[in-house]
TrEMBL record:
A single GO BP: steroid biosynthetic process
Catalytic activity reported: a very-long-chain (3R)-3-hydroxyacyl-CoA + NADP(+) = a very-long-chain 3-oxoacyl-CoA + NADPH + H(+); 17beta-estradiol + NADP(+) = estrone + NADPH + H(+); 17beta-estradiol + NAD(+) = estrone + NADH + H(+)
Predominant localisation class: endoplasmic reticulum
CDD domains listed in its UniProt record: 17beta-HSD1_like_SDR_c
Superkingdom of origin organism: Eukaryota
Coiled-coil ranges from the UniProt annotation: none
Official protein name in the record: 3-ketoacyl-CoA reductase
Cellular compartments annotated: Endoplasmic reticulum membrane
Molecular function terms from GO: estradiol 17-beta-dehydrogenase [NAD(P)+] activity; very-long-chain 3-oxoacyl-CoA reductase activity
Gene name in the database record: HSD17B12
Amino acid sequence: MVAPAALPAAGLFYWVGALGALYAAALASYRLLAGLRVWVLGSGAAAVGPALGAWAVVTGATDGIGKAYAQELARRGMKVVLISRSKEKLDQVSTEIKEKYNVETKVIVADFGEKEIYNGIKAGLEGLEIGVLVNNVGMSYAYPEYFLDIPELEKTIDKMVNINIMSVCEMTRLVLPGMLERSKGIILNIASASGMCPTPLLTLYSATKAFVDYFSQGLHAEYKSKGIIVQSVLPYYVATKMSKIRKPTLDKPSPERYVRAALGTVGLQSQTNGYLPHALMGWVMSLLPTSTAINIIMKTNKQVRARYFKKMKEK
Ligand SMILES: NC(=O)c1ccc[n+]([C@@H]2O[C@H](COP(=O)([O-])OP(=O)(O)OC[C@H]3O[C@@H](n4cnc5c(N)ncnc54)[C@H](OP(=O)(O)O)[C@@H]3O)[C@@H](O)[C@H]2O)c1
């Protein structure tokens, strides 16, 4: 028999439970509809092309995801500024783009690991009407490692902060004023899914990418009413030199496939995993308590680290 005093409490639990279930159902329906809009209909996506301004600027543009953005924006008729370290690779990609898409290109040699490059970049961008900035350049670890055991730790900290964080802030400082003058422009910041959850054994990388994500979301809120879109792009694995994945698969797409999908989300999502299978992975991860996700990632990265050392021993 239930004690009379327990009855109001049971009623309260009933209503809290019912409201909780209703809220969960409404949230799930909202997410499903929002997902359908982005991934199935694609309606309302921003036109990322020359109407925003004649030029696109891409950092880390000679390989992987950056090269794919440069090519896709050129295919859409934009002139492209390519920025990377190697003049030879820049000239090669520039020629490829000019021949294939019949657009003007410009190359700027710069090492984002250094701090003193931005006056040179500013001079190189002088007078260009820039509609799209892709802050893509990034560096990760050679293999997952405990923070204090990272080879050349002091140098790595400096380089990773300069390349992954400073480049995004400084390039934005140089390009955003011109966009604001024309009240239009899109800044695409390539963060990483590892910035969505603390990623042990890639801690520094993950933390720099979390910075990029927060910076992008904050900036988007500050400037969206002025006609500027800032998007935080958070990919899982893409088959590039950095990931050391040679053969693309459904969940580890080629950079070209990834970029085509990601550009379809601009204007619909200010924070995106960019590609449907990655969005599903992000959704599953978001259901886990953070501590569980961290434990799973730690275990996985320990295994990757062990495999790396085994391979090194065999060499
Ligand atoms: N691939 C993935 O699975 C993955 C996943 C999540 C996020 N991301 C992010 O996506 C972005 C692109 O990665 P990716 O995989 O496409 O890399 P990638 O294939 O290794 O290409 C990196 C590009 O950046 C340039 N670069 C590297 N260091 C540079 C420096 N210090 N200064 C100037 N340019 C530099 C490289 O050219 P040079 O060597 O000639 O300079 C190259 O063009 C990065 O921000 C990365 O963190 C990648």
